Amino acid sequence: MTTLLNGFSVVGHTLRSISITRFMSSATFRPLVVCGPSGSGKSTLLRRLLAEFPDYFRFSISHTTRKPRSEETDGKDYYFIERKTFEKMICENRFVEFATFSDHLYGTSFESLSFVQKSNRIPVLDLDINGIRSLKNQRFFAKYLFIRAPNVLTLERNLRNRGSEDETSLRKRLLQAVQDMEFVDKNPMLFDVIIINKDLEEAYCQLKSCLSDDIKALKEFLWKKS
């Protein structure tokens, strides 16, 4: 029996490293990897970025074993799959990274990343801290951003206003958010940029500013290709 490492085999870990190396060698653009706790305004900022720059950024759609929320669409927000299917994909080495959050599995597939790259757009990955650590451990070349609210009270207010969580789920997400922010405070070098979302307009300006070089490089690439 193969030795296990964080839930899957050392052999699987090695094969994933090889697959990531191959992907990075063929990738035209550096992916954007964004992390932020629920209620930080991360999703709002990313939706605005993709609305303003639809020809430059596109979400790499993740797979998850959780059930879709009422406003979510399969194949647009996530690929919603059964746990058995997800575990089969792990065994087939089809994920760049995968992690557990609130008892559900989430993962980024090589197919999703390649699909975005082939459309000549920068892939956007929305990951939790475990996903970030996984990519960093694999030396996955990307631009890493962390978006946070100024304090826990703001997080709680935003989550309650969203109205998609029951009290137990909300408390679990708040606890996870506090742990994530404390971890980032102790390990800021995990990220290229940390944005504190005190004001949405200011935060969005910071987001665009830190991506200006990436947008410029892609514009030049598309111009030369045309």
Question: Any overview of this molecule?
Answer:
The chain is α/β, with parallel strands linked by helices and 226 residues long. It has a single domain, classed as Rossmann fold, CATH 3.40.50. Helix content is 49%, strand content 19%. The strands form three sheets. A five-stranded parallel sheet has the order 4-9-3-10-11. Strands 6-5-8-7 form a four-stranded mixed sheet. A hairpin with a 2-residue loop joins strand 1 and strand 2. It starts with a strand and ends with a helix. Residues 1-12 have low confidence and may be disordered.
List the helices and strands and how they pair.
Elements: E1 4-5, E2 8-9, H1 10-26, E3 32-35, H2 42-52, E4 57-59, E5 63-64, E6 79-80, H3 83-91, E7 95-101, E8 104-109, H4 110-118, E9 122-127, H5 129-137, E10 143-148, H6 152-162, H7 167-186, E11 193-196, H8 200-210, H9 212-225
Parallel strand pairs: 3-9, 3-10, 4-9, 5-6, 10-11
Antiparallel strand pairs: 1-2, 5-8, 7-8
Helix pairs in contact: 6-7
| Beta-strand content bin | 15-25%
Largest beta sheet: what is the strand line-up? 4-9-3-10-11
- The overall pLDDT, averaged over residues, is 86
Order of helices and strands: EEHEHEEEHEEHEHEHHEHH
CATH level-4 homologous superfamily: P-loop containing nucleotide triphosphate hydrolases
Instruction: Please summarize the sheet with the most strands.
Output: 5 strands, parallel
Q: Compute the gyration radius: what is it?
A: 18 Å
| Helix content percent band | 40-55%
Specify the structural class.
alpha/beta
Number of strands: 11
Which key phrases capture this entry?
226 residues, alpha/beta, Rossmann fold, 5-stranded parallel sheet, 4-stranded mixed sheet, 9 helices, 11 strands, 49% helix, globular
